C-alpha cells in the first residue's frame, strides 16, 4: 500500500518544529550528523538527464544532492523526489539495496530535508528517469515544514519576505531569477564585445549628483562629514571619460529615498555607459541592438506580452518621436500657442493635478507624464525633451529650448534615458545653478565643483545612456511588479 507524506496544516507548524527538534536529538544519539559536512561529486539533475542513455547496459553511478520535496513509501520500497537548482529527480530506495538500518533511517526523514544520493539512473515502467539509490546521506535536517504542497506561498507578501520559501516552492519564480542573471550576464558580454570597460565608482558621495532625486544621508565618522548614498553614477563616470577611458560602463546599485510601488524600489540596479565621440543617436543605436540581442539570446524571441496580453515587439527599428509632436497629438496643433490660463484649464479638464503657480513647461510635462507616457506600449524613443528637464545634456543646435536626448518608453514606462552629453563647463555650471535655485537647494551643497573642474580640463563629445535593469527584467520576464524581479525587495518593517 502506498503512503505519501504531506505537510501538516499551518496551525500545526510549531508542533512540527518541536517534533523535528526531537528527531535531531535522536539522530545525534544514533551517532549520525543532522547537519552534515562536505559532500563531493555532486552533479546537477539536469546534467544527469542530459547524459542519460537508455540503451546503455551498465550505466555508471551518479551523485546528486538537493531538497526532498515528495516521499512515497510502499512497503520495502520508497520513491522520493529530490530538487536542486536545475529541477527535480525521482529516486528509488529499496530495502536490500541499502541496509535495513539505513532504510529505516531514510523512512524517518521529512520533506524539506537536504539529502545526498548515490546510485544508478534507470527509467521506470512509466518512463520516468529515476536514480536507484545504494547510498543516501542526510546533509541537513529541516526543522520547519515546507509551504503546502499544492499551493505554495499563497500570501504574496510572504513570498517577498521569505524569498527562500518562494524559490523552494515556486518554479516560475525561480525561473525569473535565473533569467535575470542571464540578462545581466549578456549585457556585460554585449558591452565588452563593443569595447566597453566595466568600472566601479563610489556609492558614498559627498554630493549626490547625476539625477534629481532625494538621497539617503549618513555620516562618515572617520572624515567627520555627511555623505550620501549615490542616486546615479553619471558624474564619476564622466570624470573617467575626461581621464581618457573612452568607453566605460557601471552596472550596480543606486539608492533613492523615495516612494515604493510596483515600478519603484528605493534600492535598484542600473546600468550607465558613456562613449567618447558618440551622441544621442549613437546611444539609440546601442540601446536598440543591446535589448534585441539580449532578448534573442535569453528568451529566444523579440516578442513579449504585458499584463494585458498585448504583444510588445522589440524588433528593430524602434519608433522615434519628438516630445513636442506627442504633445500636439494629444492636445492639438495649437497647444503651444495657447495662453497659460488656457493650458491650465485644458489640463484641469483632463483631471490632472495642476496648480495656477505651475508654468507652461510644467503643465505640459504633467500632461506628458500622466496621459501620454503610459500609452507608449511599443518601444518608442521620445526625443528632443525640454532643456529644463535634463541639465546634463547638450541643447539641440536648431532649437536651444530642447536638448538632444531620448527617453525610451516601453509598456508605458521609462526603461532608459540617453544623451548627447553636455561637455561645456560654462554652460554646465549655469544649468547646475538654475536647477539648484529651482529646487531650493544651497548652491555649495548642490554643485559638484570637482566635476566642473574635470569638465574644465576638457571632456570629448560624448554619448551616454542609462538603463533601469529591474524594469528591463520585468519586461523580458513578463512580470507585473518590480518586487517579482528583486530577490529581496524593500518591505515595511513588521
Largest sheet: 9 strands, mixed
Average pLDDT works out at: 93
How much helicity do the residues have? 25-40%
Tell me the structural class: alpha+beta
Span between N and C termini? Answer: 46 Å
Q: Name the poorly predicted regions.
A: 1-10
CATH structural fold name of the largest domain: BirA Bifunctional Protein, domain 2
What does the model show?
There is one protein chain. This protein is of the alpha+beta class. The chain folds into two domains: 2-146, Beta Barrel (OB fold (Dihydrolipoamide Acetyltransferase, E2P)), CATH 2.40.50.140; 168-318 and 378-484, BirA Bifunctional Protein, domain 2 (2-Layer Sandwich). Helices cover 33% and strands 27% of the residues. The protein has helices at 13-29, 45-51, 100-107, 156-161, 163-169, 171-193, 234-242, 280-298, 323-331, 340-349, 360-372, 425-438, 443-446, 449-456, 469-477, and strands at residues 2-4, 62-74, 77-84, 87-94, 114-123, 129-140, 197-198, 204-205, 217-220, 225-229, 247-255, 267-276, 303-305, 311-313, 319-322, 380-386, 395-396, 399-410, 413-420, 462-468. Strands 7, 11, 12, 15, 16, 17, 18, 19 and 20 form a nine-stranded mixed beta sheet that branches. It has a five-stranded mixed beta barrel with strand order 2-3-4-6-5.
